[in-house]
Amino acid sequence: MSETNPxxxxxxxxxxxxxxxxxxxxxxxxxxxxxxxxxxxxxTEPREPLPPKPDQTGPxxxxxxxxxxxxxQARMAQSGSHLTNAQGTRLYDxxxxxxxxxxxxxxxxDHHLREKVMHFDHERIPERVVHARGAGAHGVFRxxxxxxxxxxxxxLAEDVETPVFVRFSTVLGSRGSSDTVRDTRGFATKxxxxxxxxxxxxxxxxxxxxxxxxxxxxxxxxxxxxxDREIPQxxxxxxxxWDFVTLHTEATHHTLWNMSDRGIxxxxxxxxxxxxxxxxxxxxxxxxxxxxxxxxxKLGVHSLVWEEAQIINGVDPDFHRRDxxxxxxxxxxxxxxxxxxxxxDTPDQTFEGxxxxxxxxxxxxxxxxxxxxxxxxxxRNPSNFFAETEQVAFHVGHLVPxxxxxxxxxxxxxxxxxxxxxxxxxxGPNFPQLPIxxxxxxxxxxxxxxxxxxxxxxxxxxxxxxxxDGGCPFTPGASADSASLDGAYVETPVRVPEATKVRxxxxxxxxxxxxxxRFWLSMSPPEREHIIGAYTFELAKCYEQAxxxxxxxxxxxxxxxxxxxxxxxxxLPAPEPTVPLADVEPSPALSQIGHTWPTDGRIxxxxxxxxxxxxxxxxxxxxxxxxxxxxxxVAPTGGTLGxxxxxxxxxxTYATARSVEFDALLVAGTPGVxxxxxxxxxxKAGEPSLREATPDPRVGLLLAExxxxxxxxxxxxxxxxxxxxxxxxxxxxxxxxxxxxxxVLQQLVRLLGAHRVxxxxxxxx
Length: 765
Prior knowledge:
The chain has about 775 residues and is α/β, with parallel strands linked by helices.
């Protein structure tokens, strides 16, 4: 195996940590629950807690006031070999309440019972109102230095490395909802910079539903489940959502993005991120530049197809968080380039006629190219989901010198809202002292006391000016020999025009259709078909006919083809536009199709059986690993295939495998028939008359689904019969066969570069 293979590096790290003991991802496959495999019998010999897996770590060990402690990560976790209570007193039993005799009543004096149940009763905190379901990871951001001419932010200087924590999330669903729902995704990044914390709290869609934050409660109330029945969960396919967005046509652009493939990403690793708003950069001389922030995934932007997403919601609702954790554990570290679009900071804050303060607008990359300024790599999984992913607290007002805000009215409301929600969720104003939120810069803030205060402050004068504490803390420029404000955060002195206080929007906010039309015209034929299908599905779920008709009128003002396609699916007439169609140029950068991307971390399903081409499977499995991808062997039953040291471990059975887990399938030899191929035992096996069928009916379902979803499929050494049995022509687009599995794999990898076989998605046109 190649020494540069990330899967081997991950396995080697585990072996090194164990001083040679065989542990970690079995055969390079991620997903092992713990640091080492357990014995069958319960361990009884006391020992210290096992370390975490090599891919897992906690927040850096800094004090509540931002000082490096030098403490080992292990000192932040549980310690000691024996069970204790919260005060460190050893306990001899935790399975039985203290009673007056074995059959007597439980005694009120059982302080261990009281403490244990009390803590359990309070171990949940309020979930986020929005973005409740998420997943996170630690990483590092390395700056290229290419932004140094437009910002003085220290973390954007050349070759500066900054620790980060990133949380991905869905917007509408509860913590218990599914990952692959059609929804906007959060992409929030916490930079632990030398000048304080900078939070870039973005989404995977560059625009928002509304232009003013005062409407945020309204759009979320509309998108959430209906309050009378609390259904439907984690989706927008219902009346209240479409009632709102068809009455507020400023939502049209975001809705169109959400109905596109962008609304159902393949993975967090293949998802773009955007800062949404226009921000202001400030250089060392005080010059300002307007900017939009972008995250560009190195693996490309890829999505699920709708049926695939629906299957995943039932088969594996944790699909996205599992994919992220497994990729990091396997050493296939996700990467994004950080980029900026820059614009002159003119008094009208527009660019090429586009209002930069309107969060429902984008600036096409053809007009303002995205300039790469750094690389984000996620390389460590959290060691505790609650302490890190659940307790991390972001705020758009966490800024550093060199980055400032603009007068975007949506951004203004977010600056107010985020602190409020942290106080409710995290129990008080001291949430920045939670380990995951602690800055890595010295903190001397004069904020004192409050719930959950963990810093032990000194001194007697937490106010300014003071003399009792020697005048500390000082402000930059306070000393006699310093007239500079270097290092301080200073708001940009933007001139505010004289105006009358009004509750109005500028006229430039009235154009609700030209940007959605550009997005539609930029899509390829398959992507347009997916958008039409999404609108048809969502609106067909609405009960009220009036809402469907109103939605069609909105679509008619975007594009007649879009409106006619959705109207046909709803069985309604397509209305005429009520406004002239906008004359806009397409932006090819908005399409996800037409590029070739790396295949790192892609999952190859190798379908075989006891009589399959096991030698070919061994060879192709090794080649998949060395290519930085993940091979999963699918066979009739679990256990191993073959004998001795060359035995192959089976990762999925015909009963547990579904096509949605794989990016490509390779059938090596003739698959067998599982002993559990009974419809009553596994409905996917079909009728009892199919019991002796070859191949197993579930293999046919696996292949048919993959084919229908546009995935690359290969067959070798007799596997062609399985494809034919599934009704898949060997000469169909994206179907390859050959004499050896290794030769077929090479062709599959080439096909994977385009993500899907798009030729299998014919359009109505």
